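Ticket reopened. Same input as before:
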Amino acid sequence: DAGITQSPRHKVTETGTPVTLRCHQTENHRYMYWYRQDPGHGLRLIHYSYGVKDTDKGEVSDGYSVSRSKTEDFLLTLESATSSQTSVYFCAIRGPGMNTEAFFGQGTRLTVV
Amino acid sequence: AQKVTQAQTEISVVEKEDVTLDCVYETRDTTYYLFWYKQPPSGELVFLIRRNSFDEQNEISGRYSWNFQKSTSSFNFTITASQVVDSAVYFCALSVPDTGNQFYFGTGTSLTVIP
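Engineering reply: fixed in the latest deploy. New output:
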């Protein structure tokens, strides 16, 4: 199995509080991604990183920020959590080349109350 | 722009029936890859197959087969003699040359196999 772990796995937080999710990899892959999964929407890309300190927005980036200060860690921050951000969040890693598969973390179930 | 459409939101079949999951994609790139992932009820995402845009040969792996047709921009997935363990959400995805090397996912098809 690819070495990718997400923490925490579950979190309940209150509206308006900041939340940070962590993705850690041991594969030294260049690309890292944060997705959210909601019923009827599949997997939607929030942000991605193509190198240390190189990040860009995905299709649903509003309300989220990311940081990647070292290859192995990719952090997703909800600056001020809202109920619409209740979701399951997946981190993924991928090597170079469009032929490579992505490896996914086990997901973080976030509930904003 | 890239787009993947999985028009079938939910499918139910009785065990041992065959089932085909449809995937239609849009891209202007001539070189690209297509993927299928499985997400069982436990939640993890499992890679099933990849296919490049220059290889239209069908692929068979046990009870699974994939039919890639560039003429219709489709990459369909067939499960033969379905089993309860096939119950899962299946995602089709497209990968093209871009900065983020990202996947463009369809919205998924939830397959339920009834014993």
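Residues 86 and 111 of chain A are 5 Å apart (CA to CA). Chain A has a mean pLDDT of 95. Please confirm and we'll close it.
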